[in-house]
Write a structure and sequence with these properties.
By secondary structure, the protein is of the alpha/beta class. It is built from seven helices and 13 strands.
Length: about 300
């Protein structure tokens, strides 16, 4: 069977791209739809109403999967990624909790994450930079953009990061994700329109994940994902959370107790690092917030 690439997903309906770039509408065999954008799949063809459709027979093994999970459901973003761009903005001012959660999800899936600050031309930009200082200090890659007012400069800063890589774009609503995709892929809107017409489901195209090639050679891609307001981390074991906090890592192993939860235990290396200014108190507060969630799972 031939292999294909999933480039769009809408429930149990997919768009599949063949090895020579042809895109076909596809559905899965049976009732389960385990494929996500970025998956390599094996497929066959069927004829429906005079049109050729692909039937996904199986999903090839993945390198990784970026997803979020709350107590009710799992939401998969994309698979087989090289990196995640987490887009935040100075207005509306970004949530550090959402940023931290995306970082934990990426690290637990062994995917690199780059923070991109947009709207640096606005008055709240200095405050946003101040809030991002702990992330820069811990060595997180950080790129500043002003997509609306410095398009060419923004493109110049981003392009070297994206060449030859598969990149998932994440961000809350209002951060400028659509503007960024249109900057990188000028034909993105027309592609969305074509897909909408093919599926006769235009209302879905802004709420699901879409793959866009960045070059004619199809070596680099940006994957646009829906905006989100919540980011559950139920897929992460509570005992593993601390090691997914990058600024905690230099201090892990220094606590008196091997099962230290880094709350108020005596001789805790993490709380000592917070007191010494080596870990941001806000980051420690977010860690405790997530830890409480993970320790109160309802099965």
């Amino acid at each position: 069977m031939p292999q294909g690439l999933i480039v769009a997903a809408f429930g149990r309906h997919f768009t599949l791209e063949t090895h020579d770039g042809v895109r076909l509408q596809a559905h899965v065999r049976g009732k389960r739809s385990e494929a996500v954008v970025g998956d390599r799949v094996l497929w066959n063809t069927t004829q429906t109403g005079g049109e050729t459709q692909a039937v996904i027979e199986s999903v090839e093994p993945r390198r990784n999967l970026m997803h979020r999970q709350d107590l009710m459901r799992t939401k998969s973003f994309a698979a087989n990624l090289d990196q995640v761009l987490m887009l935040v903005a100075s207005q509306p001012l970004f949530s550090e909790s959402q940023l931290t959660r995306a970082m934990v999800a990426a690290k637990s899936a062994q995917i690199e994450l780059v923070i991109v600050l947009n709207k640096t031309d606005l008055p709240d930009a200095p405050l946003a930079r101040e809030r991002l200082k702990p992330y820069a200090t811990m060595g997180m890659p950080l790129v500043e953009l002003s997509i609306q007012h410095a398009r060419e400069e923004s493109l110049k800063r981003l392009s070297p990061l994206l060449q030859g890589r598969t990149t998932l774009l994440l961000g809350a609503s209002g951060t400028g994700k659509s503007s960024l995709v249109n900057l990188l892929v000028p034909q993105a809107q027309s592609r969305v329109g074509e897909l909408s017409q093919a599926l006769q489901a235009g209302r879905h195209t802004t709420t699901h994940t879409l793959w866009h090639w960045l070059d004619q050679g199809r070596t680099g891609a940006i994957i646009d994902s829906p905006g989100f307001q919540e980011f559950g981390l139920q897929q992460v074991p509570a005992a593993d959370l601390a090691r997914h906090m990058q600024d905690f890592q230099p201090h892990l192993g220094g606590c008196r107790f091997s099962n230290c939860q880094h709350r108020q235990e005596p001789d805790c290396a993490i709380t000592a690092a917070v007191t010494a200014g080596l870990i941001s108190p806000q980051r420690h507060r977010i860690y405790l917030e997530i830890l409480d969630e993970l320790q109160t799972r309802r099965w």
